[in-house]
Amino acid sequence: MKFGIVRFPGSNSDLDCHRAVTEGLGARAEYLWHREHDLQGADVILLPGGFSYGDYLRAGAIARFSPIMREVVDFAERGGPVLGICNGFQVLCEARLLPGALARNEGLRFQSRHVHVRVETAETPFTSAYGEGEILRLPIANGEGRYVADETTLDRIEGEDRVVIRYVDEDGGRSDEANPNGSARDIAGVCSAERNVVGVMPHPERASLPYLGSTDGLGFLESVLTRTAGAA
Amino acid sequence: MGEVHAGRLVTLELEAPDAGTARERTVEMCEELIANPVIEDYRIDVEESPAESPAGAS
Predict the structure, then answer these.
(1) Partner residue opposite A103 with nearest CB, options B33, B34, B39
(2) What's residue B49's pLDDT?
(3) DSSP string across A127-186
(4) Measured between beta carbons, which residues in chain B are less than 8 angstroms from residue A61?
(5) In the predicted model, is pLDDT for residue A176 greater than 90?
(6) Domain that residue B37 falls in
(7) Which domains are present in chain A?
(8) pLDDT tier at B51 (50, 70, 90 boundaries)?
(9) Residue B7 lies inside a defined structural domain of this protein
């Protein structure tokens, strides 16, 4: 079981992902340089957070043309599990592996703090270790984190149970105050129609070791470990 | 005061046989990279650049 962590110029949660996988989970992880065309036999692909290509033009817009993304798209289309975190989520939307887009936060401020999210579906390779309705405390760090899509798309992803996590307050209630960036319908993460591609704005890898103050996010990685082990 | 609009202006220079082709290629570039149609609108103005030296004359 091997995790491949893609490194773009400007990625900054690549080390956090590596530690979460190796220390938190005790699994193997390999960095995948964006100019390579080889996923090095990874069973799971992580697209970390950061500011790939300095977020020039739009967050994630240039990274999606990186050589490695061709392999990531192929891997995803073959059903391989792919998790995009923060900037990785933006890249997945730009690559059209996920619906919608991430726009500038409502209020225009960069948000760096802990939020609460509710697991809306356990039917993805990255959330199967959680119970539906489980509330997690995870950090966010984004300026372009406001999830947007047209109403038809929003209705469709809700109808297909593809909202993976939602911003809530600590008791699990939805409110404008609990939504840190004005995301449509409080959406903090979505999955693809085939459910193997997941994008989340909060950073589960930064809440995966006791010394980080929360291990609520480790379940994202545990989920895929259990799942892949079970399938093999 | 009325509405305020902030946007991005991208100036592209490209060679094309005519304005229609130039527009077509620009639409393609906008859809693929320059704009994200999910969150952005775009408008294209095509202008012929002046003083283009004829092929082979330089």
Answers:
(1) B39
(2) 82
(3) TTTSPTT-EEEEEEEESS-EEE--HHHHHHHHHTT-EEEEEE-TTS---TTT-SS--GGG
(4) 33, 36
(5) yes
(6) 14-46
(7) 2-231 (3.40.50.880)
(8) low
(9) no
